[in-house]
Structure formats: structure tokens, C-alpha cells
Amino acid sequence: MIKEIDAGDLQNRIVEGDEYLLLDIRSAGELVQGVLPDAEHLPMHLLPLRMSELPKDKDVILYCHSGARSYHACAYLTQQGFANVINLRGGILNWARSGYQLAARLAS
Asked: Is 72 helix (H, G, I), strand (E, B) or coil?
């Protein structure tokens, strides 16, 4: 089963200063629409090549546009032995519809 978080719960984690890695797995072209605060960019197609860089000691929260691609990415990472991946239900679309802030660009 894939763990999921909704926009409100993620906002609470941001406010509380929880430790996690927030990964935007959309394509580079989609980033112009805005990103979640403090997100890092790792396009979905690069996950298999770079999953060794992901932490295993804290949650890794993935998101895409609507939550579908990130759900599949979480399923893939779970199959690869990651127990700490969480999908943002509804993606950045639901985040924005919930009234939460978007950043202009990714954290560097």
C-alpha cells in the first residue's frame, strides 16, 4: 500500500518544521507553473538512476501535477525497498486549490 499525505497535512509538517525531503518529479517544463516551498527537482524518468541519493532515514514526499505520476513513482520506490516514500494526494493542483503558497522556483 502506498502512503499518502494531503495538502493540509503537508502544510502542517512545513509549519512544524518536520524533517523530510520534498521531491517535485514533474518535467522541467512544468516547473514554470510554480513549485512547493523548499522542494527539490528530480524528474520522474531519473528516479531509477538517482534513487541511491534518496535518504532512508527521513520521509521522502513526492508530488507531480495531479498525484498520478508521483503515486506510481512511490509504488516503484516501495518495490525497490523504500519504506519512507509518501505521495502528495492530488499533486500540486490540489495544493494550489487548497489555497497554499507556491514558490517561484526550487530550493537550490
From this structure: helix
Which is nearest to 51 in space by CA: 18, 28, 85? 85
Find out whether 64 and 91 touch, Cβ atoms under 8 Å. Answer: yes
Residues 64-77 pLDDT 10s: 999 999 999 999 99
User: Are the beta carbons of 30 and 106 closer than 8 angstroms?
Assistant: no
**64, 73, 77, 86: the active-site residue:** 64
What φ, ψ does residue 4 adopt, rounded to 5°? -135, 155
Identify the structural domains of the chain with CATH numbers, from first to last: 3-97 (3.40.250.10)
Residue 64 is a catalytic residue? yes
Structure confidence by residue, pLDDT tens digits, 27-70: 999 999 899 988 999 999 999 999 999 999 999 999 999 999 99
Residue with cell 525531503: 21
Q: Give dist(CA 64, CA 27) in Å, integer.
A: 9
